[in-house]
Amino acid sequence: MNGVNEGVWVYLSTSPLLWLTVTLIVYCAASQLYEWSNANPLLNPVAISITLLISFLALTKTDYQLYFSGAQYIHFLLGPATVALAIPLYHQVSKLKKIWFSAMVAISTGVVLGAVSSVFIAKWLGADIQTQLSLAPKSVTAPVAMGIAEKIGALPSLTAALVVMTGVTGALICTLLFSLLGIKDNSVKGIAVGVAAHGIGTARAFKISAEMGAFSGLAMALSTLISALALPWLVTFLF
Prior knowledge:
239 residues; mainly alpha; 2 domains; globular
């Protein structure tokens, strides 16, 4: 019987549909848990899903490339989903017109300070140069961050892991941090989350309010553009 079960598993594990289904089930379960907890940030559905999927792949000894053969269909939807962020932002145009200059200054400053501070903290803690370089684009959405990492001589794989960790951490602590700092304006919250925690933070922002999510999406897009243009030059200046 065990041999039959093993044979069935081997057959199913090679099907892209299995891994697509597993990913959807895990995320739906994590989202339901998040709702049951009254939106407790410690049970962020993205963080929970990542943890469960990694554990499942490790337990079943499944190669990531095999898993991605199914998950790539969800990955493809990231493009349309990112473009769709323009829709909630359109509803905030009147407010954006009033704060566009302040927003640009905040986003540009956040990109530069985020990169510089992470590099110098890593250096202070004794990290090697490649690790320092890999930290520089940690707040940029993963595909662009990996491209920047490759261009500046960092480790793209390490940068990808740091990007995910940064996004999850930002999504977990943002509400508590805003509460401690007394920040109530959703546009300000959104810009901060978008700059610091990219897509994962933006998903969390939309859970809080449409306005916060809209400005987080804007900040994420602009900080990605600024990072792609500025970080290679900034790194040569720092090193």
